[in-house]
Amino acid sequence: MEMPPKSPDGSENEKSPQSKELITSNTGSTLCMSSRSESVWTSASRSKWDIYHKPVIVVSVGAAVFLFGMVITSLSYFLQKNKQVYKMCGPAFLSLGLMLLVCGLVWIPIIRKKQKQRQKSQFLQSLKSFFFNR
Question: Where are the residues of the annotated region Disordered (predicted)?
């Protein structure tokens, strides 16, 4: 037979894992942490690479694909064998590389603007908490 716990003050000998979790956890902070990403709540600064690594990778891949397209396009002028294939594939790689290159280059100022807005927002929140928590 299963015996229910005697009292919630901890006088019973064996506690279930669920009751231990409920007693020891801070539900308010747990809810806040789970509702948003940790980067919003932590004040640790991120390195430049952590912030800009995605657009740098996109720019690098775009530049490589663009250069590959230039090589393929130039091969259509120098080689007579498979000329039609080079003429079709070269411009396709050129346009794809240029698209990735431009997207990455536009992405960098957007990230800078977001970083400035986030810094302003954190500053205004600290001012608000300073004045209203008195």
Answer: 1-31
Q: What is the DSSP letter of 10?
A: S
DSSP per residue, 51-78: HHHHHHHHHHHHHHHHHHHHHHHHHHHH
Tell me how far apart the alpha carbons of residues 51 and 73 are, in angstroms, rounded to a whole number: 35
pTM of the predicted protein model: 0.58
- Structural element, H or E, at residue 112: helix 83-132
Per-residue pLDDT of the chain (134 residues; tens, 9 = 90+): 555 555 555 555 555 555 555 555 555 555 444 444 444 445 567 888 888 899 999 999 999 999 999 999 998 888 888 888 888 999 999 999 999 999 999 999 999 999 888 888 888 888 778 788 76
In angstroms, the CA 28 to CA 23 distance is 13
- Which residues lie closer than 8 Å to 115 by C-beta, 6 or more apart? 51
Total residues belonging to the chain: 134
Residues 6+ apart with CB under 8 A from 56: 104
